């Protein structure tokens, strides 16, 4: 049932009224004066509106905070209505994903990193939560999650500041589909390989996985042992192979050449590895023979700039994902016009690029580059870009553009009942050769750390801030979008706001955050 607040004495009543009246009166005054402020001016009217909306947003958060303080002082009786998802902010798109969603036989499974544990939640095909649990982390550093053919894998790590070649730096832990631990591979440095010494695992790297012929492959970044000539270790690429039968593994490929993003996919007898190679000054794609690990590397997109020291240079580009079609390897990212690298200003825009490399002709010469956006100024950049396989010949590319909150032209504001609705998700569909198949669609949704999945001709992913968990479904054929909103006020509590009334339901402690986490573009000037 909804929260019942019992005001038994004049002291409680006065406290309650004082707590809420200040925020409510200020919000009412601002809303009442907003139309006059907005319609009286041209350039200044948008700026005034934005400033007021920012204040309203802060005061709305204050209302939540006031309610939280009141419940601490005078707790009411609350009963649980249903199981509640855990809100865990995943709006910042980072190299290492902290949130995953996979399709299972009877719905979906959500996997997300918590402080010292991994949250697991189950949903039916209607995205209604059915169960939740936690798995404790075994090592302090989060790596990533992978759903394999023989179970679920978690990758975790720990620093090796003692520079001990025998020290475990990465642990690959396998669980069955009921989350019973079924084995683990302990990974140590491999001093026999150049770049195989690991001081800091996962450093400036993704943690991406694939499997083929009974072997799990993991690609990431790392920092090597300290180079005394510069006073720190060098960063580079790392590939690990784990035999799934024996759960033994080792580093099989590595370097110290500034690898700032890594992705891996397998098809047929090959492994494809995509990197942002700052050392090579390009986005590069490598193909490995999965039997011998013989490698061929090609340049996809060259970067500007000239190296004059061992220190990293800005790339003004991002590498955001890859997919393999029946015909081609498709790689997605953002970049400036690299021919203007030496003339970059804060006004220089990024655009989304898509590279297409035929699997039958794996070469730089056969690779083509397409641009999916065509911005020419205003320093345009992107919060994140995703490529999602639907079939072997149909893919969805989605992105969110970075909106500068200091830019008075921005007029996107979240609705009161959906705090994630201020963002705009853009998406379109391409075929296996990178040809655009649809118009560009938009919907009120953010891009998030979660890689979308496909089930029943729907592209599904979730986004969350501290008090909302939204699941978004996009029809893979016609592009129509829908969403399911969970408004959380604690592990077992929910909130709702309708007709000016805020309702809290559930039981146990409330956890209402008024913090706003900053979001940043994946690359900017």
**Number of DSSP-assigned strands:** 31
Count of alpha/pi helices: 2
Structural class: mainly beta
Mean pLDDT: 87
Rg from Cα: 25 Å
Question: Percent range for helical residues?
Answer: 10-25%
Q: Numbering strands along the chain, what is their spatial order in the largest sheet?
A: 26-27-28-29-30-31
Strand content: 35-45%
Shape call: globular
Largest sheet: 6 strands, antiparallel
Poorly predicted regions: 1-50, 70-81
In whole angstroms, how far apart are the ends?
A: 51 Å
Outline the secondary-structure elements.
Layout: H1 10-39, H2 43-73, E1 99-104, E2 107-113, E3 117-123, E4 129-136, E5 141-148, E6 151-157, E7 168-175, E8 181-188, E9 200-201, E10 207-212, E11 215-227, E12 232-243, E13 248-254, E14 259-267, E15 270-277, E16 282-289, E17 295-302, E18 317-324, E19 328-335, E20 351-358, E21 368-371, E22 382-391, E23 394-401, E24 425-431, E25 441-443, E26 453-455, E27 458-464, E28 468-475, E29 481-490, E30 493-498, E31 501-506
Helix pairs in contact: 1-2
